[in-house]
Specification:
Length: about 70
């Protein structure tokens, strides 16, 4: 029974902290653009990878000491 005397206030305190963190995130705009992140992952901004044959030729010529 004595454990409930500190478990109940601890649970209420943690719940209040979670509520305050949620309200802070709403006020700071964390949930303003929910579709932007979903669209951003589909945009490919990286340069295309080099052709496999060109990469193989570059590897064959390197490190062998041969000059062509």
């Amino acid at each position: 029974m004595s454990a409930l005397l500190w478990l109940i206030p601890a649970a209420l305190g943690l719940g209040l902290m979670g509520l305050l963190a949620f309200l802070w995130s709403v006020r700071s705009g964390q949930y303003d653009d929910l579709d932007g992140a979903a669209q951003r992952i589909l945009i490919d901004e990286d340069a295309p990878l080099p052709d496999q044959e060109a990469a193989a030729e570059a590897r064959d010529g390197e490190g062998t000491g041969e000059k062509s």
